Amino acid sequence: MFVLAELKDNVRIAPDQFHMKLVDAVRDEIDRKLANKVLLNVGLCIALKEIVSLKDSIILPGDGASHTEVLFRYVVFRPMVGTVLTGKIRNCSREGVHVTLGFFDDILIPHAALQHPSRFDEAEQAWVWEYPLEDGAKHDLFMDVGEPIKFRVSREIFEETSPIGPPKAEAQSQQGPSTSSAAASAQSQEAKTPYKIVGAINESGLGVLSWWDQQGKEEDQDDEDGEDNMEYDNDEDGEGACEE
Predict the structure, then answer these.
(1) For the residues 166-191, what does the mean pLDDT come to?
(2) What is the DSSP string of 27-44?
(3) Cα separation values, 55 from 5, 22, 30, 159, 229, Å
(4) Cα–Cα 20 to 30 A to 167, which of 23, 41, 161, 240?
């Protein structure tokens, strides 16, 4: 789930930080720059592990800050495809079940990857697994908000979210005020998520944890009832024999 990524960066240390040791100043600057940020095709940065090497610092003309090339290892959240994780249901929509790990929220279990057959309950705003019973009936198992859920990572999606620059001046001049405001609101609604995880629960043992805990308790109760129904008699030699 967590991996070490070896990265290289040119770290700028402002003059007001020259009183600190170079290693400490570099650590603070790297964490300020990367912590809780997503790097494309790397993952969600969590914390600095160690600094591998520091090259000589230089001061550029017109800039009083020092610039140091740093090689370091950073703890990154990027679970491998096939990894089984446990999170909590954040909310449900027709798109599927949205899951959070507490520190990472962009996890979706699409409706096609839920236990089959499942339906979306509009009143409860929750997905429901229609669990088939032996007599042919169905028992509804709800995927409620806040329930712990175990899922398997099936896919990861990285998207480039760097600014593409302001619109061209010609386009701005041709657009009226209302058109410009509408375009701005549309762009804000189309905000991309830099890193998303797609999960699946359509296999045995995955899904809401209470489903399987309840099933395990019922099986244990059946075993206990079976043992209680056994009668013990003594044979002629006084040895115990059992019969159902």
Answers:
(1) 52
(2) HHHHHHHHTT-EETTTEE
(3) 19, 11, 15, 32, 77
(4) 41
**Quick check: 94 and 120 in contact, CB under 8 A?**
yes
Which band of pLDDT confidence, cut at 50, 70 and 90, is reported for residue 189?
very low
Query: Backbone phi, then psi, for 151, in 5-degree steps?
Result: -140, 160
Distance from C-alpha of 86 to C-alpha of 235, rounded to nearest angstrom: 53
| Residues 185 and 68 sit within 8 Å (Cβ to Cβ) | no
The pTM is what?
0.75
Question: CB within 8 A of 147, min separation 6: which ones?
Answer: 88, 89, 208, 209, 210
Phi, psi (degrees; rounded to nearest 5) at 173: -70, -30
Phi and psi at residue 183, to the nearest 5°: -65, -40
Q: Pull the structure tokens for residue 105.
A: 């929220």
Q: List b or e across 172-182, with b for residues whose CB sees 16 or more CB atoms inside 10 angstroms.
A: eeeeeeeeeee
